[in-house]
Amino acid sequence: MPTPLKTTINHEVKPLRINFRSVAIERDITRSSWGPNVLDRTCVLVVLRGQGEFMLDGVNHKVHAGQAMAVPKGVPAFYHTDFHAPEAWSLCWVIFDGEDANQVLQHCRFTVARPVVNVEDTEPFEEIVSHMLAYADRTYSNAMMLQGLMLAFLSTLVASVTSVAEDIDPKDNKYLDAAVNYIHEHINEPLQVNDVADALYISRSYLCTVFQDHLKITPKVFIMKAKMFQAAEDLRHSAASIAQLAERYGYSSPFAFSKSFKRIMGMSPREFREQFTEPDDLVVELFKPPTARKNQRSYASTGAEPAAR
């Protein structure tokens, strides 16, 4: 006969002041993009499969399966799939707010300068999010379950982070931040690399070295990407013609603008505008060839997020 045994845990836990807002998962998306945009909540995303690019506060990061990303409240962000990657993109995320949201990001080892971390295993995150999506009905018990599962998602992340990006030299970081800010402040001008270097009182070669060392991209390509990301938003949310956008972003002709846009976004401005059918969604499928696998997207929310997927 087994010996009677009682096991207890006595540990006062202060509740985190964060609130669940939404959860979502997308599977096997061939082309998707969100932003540039600014959230009024905090978002944590985990890349389950595939790869893409994630830009936070103007700084570009390559991301792939096995990594998590953070979009803090009020910080400009943009991401898109790698349009040429052999494996389709699968991603899950939770959105939350509250007084302790930044504290949670700190415990996950996220910072604005280092918003991408590596995790041991993505399977637990996919399982938790799939479980959360079963509680979409707006009931009191479901709200409690979603809050608890969100905490499970975040605690799993805190426990499974293995490493973060390397620190940037403080001097380089100062020039990098200043350069990114200058580029975004002058995004509608025919901006050249020399203009940025002159504004920062540094040489063009040093500016190129800083960008290449820390962003793995040249200032020239960064400027082009920044312009194209902003132009993509204009295509989604305005009726501006290609000629008007070319003039707005400092291009000599609509042809030159369209060529740069296709180089960065993988399709022409006209194709981009036609294929963006859900401009208010956090994730929008841009292209689905007839032979593509069936895309699956799921979403649950308290109703506070306007289709924030």
From TrEMBL:
SUPFAM superfamilies: Homeodomain-like, Regulatory protein AraC
Keywords, in A-Z order: Activator, Cytoplasm, DNA-binding, Transcription, Transcription regulation
Pfam families for the chain: AraC_binding, HTH_18
Origin superkingdom: Bacteria
InterPro entries: AraC-bd, AraC_XylS_family_regulators, Homeodomain-like_sf, HTH-like, HTH_AraC, HTH_AraC-typ_CS, Tscrpt_reg_AraC-type_HTH
Domain HTH araC/xylS-type: 177-275
The keyword Lipid biosynthesis is annotated on this UniProt entry: no
UniProt-recorded Gene Ontology molecular function terms: DNA-binding transcription factor activity; sequence-specific DNA binding
Name this polypeptide is given: AraC family transcriptional regulator
Organism phylogeny: Bacteria, Bacillati, Actinomycetota, Actinomycetes, Bifidobacteriales
